[in-house]
Design goal:
Helix content is about 25%, strand content about 30%. The strands form two sheets. It has a five-stranded antiparallel beta sheet, with helices on both faces. A three-stranded antiparallel beta sheet has the order 4-5-8. It is globular, with a radius of gyration of 16 Å. By secondary structure, the protein is α+β, with helices and mostly antiparallel strands. It contains four helices and eight strands, in the order ααβββββββαβα. The structure holds nickel (II) ion.
């Protein structure tokens, strides 16, 4: 496995709508290797999610995982999602902090759907459907945006909460229930 360079805001691939992966393309050894490398890259960057455009490939694929070191059962297991779609569950949006591995060291408040249904293929091309809420639903909305060329800054209704990470940790973070919430995606 290998870690891959993460591209940053300003690279046009982050503004390019990604294209779906066929089951045949997904089955190729090189694509399976790429998925492993994306997972390793996410871990190495201490992120909780990574979408293919962030490693320079405009493909509809993302991975996410969030470990909770204090309460392991609260963690979010590794998920690989190919050609994902979401169906939001009706309800009030939830506002919470987000960061992005392609926009290092910034955090901002972003409204997201509180709950949704995720439909996608796994890395073996098998379809799955999952009802998600909370932090996992937020990660999935952030990653799906990457596949459509959208960054979390675009989702901020106003920019006054935008903060550098160290200042945010000092002044704005507040008591977090889950350390992984500090992490970028
Ligand atoms: Ni991101």
């Amino acid at each position: 496995m290998a870690t891959l360079p993460i591209v940053r805001m300003g690279n046009p691939v982050l503004r390019t709508p990604a294209i779906p992966l066929s089951p045949k393309a997904l089955a190729a050894p090189a694509m399976q290797q790429l998925i492993d490398d994306m997972v390793e890259t996410m871990h190495d960057a201490e992120g909780v999610g990574l979408a293919a455009p962030q490693i320079g490939l405009a493909l509809r694929l993302f991975v996410y995982q969030a470990d909770d070191e204090e309460v392991p059962e609260n963690g979010i297991p590794l998920c690989v999602a190919i050609n994902p779609t979401i169906e939001p569950v009706a309800g009030e949006p939830v506002v919470d902090w987000e960061g992005c591995l392609s926009i290092p060291d910034l955090r901002g408040l972003v409204p997201r759907h509180a709950a949704l249904r995720l439909r996608a293929m796994d890395r073996h091309g098998v379809g799955f459907e999952r009802a998600l809420e909370g932090f996992e639903a937020r990660i999935v909305q952030h990653e799906l945006d990457h596949l459509d060329g959208v960054l979390f800054l675009d989702r901020m209704p106003e920019l006054s909460s935008l903060a550098f990470l160290d200042e945010w940790q000092g002044f704005l973070r507040g008591p977090a229930d889950f350390d992984a919430r500090d992490k970028a995606e």
